[in-house]
Design brief:
This protein is about 55% helix and about 5% strand. With about 260 residues, the protein is α/β, with parallel strands linked by helices. Helix 2 links the parallel strand 3 and strand 4.
Length: about 260
Amino acid sequence: MDQRHIRLEGVDNFRDFGGYRGAGGKRVRAGRLYRSAHHGGATDADLAAIAALELAAIVDLRRGEERERMPSRRHVDFAALVIENDSNEATPDPWLAFIKASDASEQAFQGYLDGYYRNAPFEPRHVDLFKRYFAALAEVDGPILVHCAAGKDRTGVLVALTHHVLGVDRDDIFADYLLTNAVLPFERRLPVLTQVIAEQAGRTPTPAAVRAAMAVEAAYLEAAYEAIEASHGGVDAYLADVLAVDAAVREAIRDRLLV
């Protein structure tokens, strides 16, 4: 198991995404940047472990109905800034809408995720959350945690953008992204997701199809990069034009997080 992984009882995919070499030969601070799946199933022991991290901010990338279905558990002294939003709530959950209309095949899930990543950097709700996250990253003193439902797709895009701002090498960006496949408890999650897909799609998916729904692939993150390149000519222009991460914000983030 990768040493970045923080093993918790009821919160999956919890890990430190600092420690990589960044701009100017400096290193991203460890213990300042965390990512995970949702905290709805956190045990009391998990809450104590999270409290010990002394988080200054949490970014919850989930939609409002996701947060209602699985509210985050917080420790008794929790006082961190929480960044979330409820925009576009009239729009059906795209994941559930896709499952209902799909044939629940491995190829269908892979195609959906490719399209999802191409749109994710520009989804208005994501843009709002991403902008507020980077603003906080430049100003908040203390560790920040980013999470969505599984901590792999929305979280994966935002973590990759964070690493880019910090000057992390592309190979390390992808290596961190792909760690999800090493730390997610696939065998435990597979029966649960199989049942959800079967109920929504009206057919039972194969194990390979469910794994395709749960896993990440380098091609998905590449798809996000390709879409950014096509629309803005590069990640730096996208960050500045869409997320307001200009030179001053970038330097503030690097000053706080590179050593």
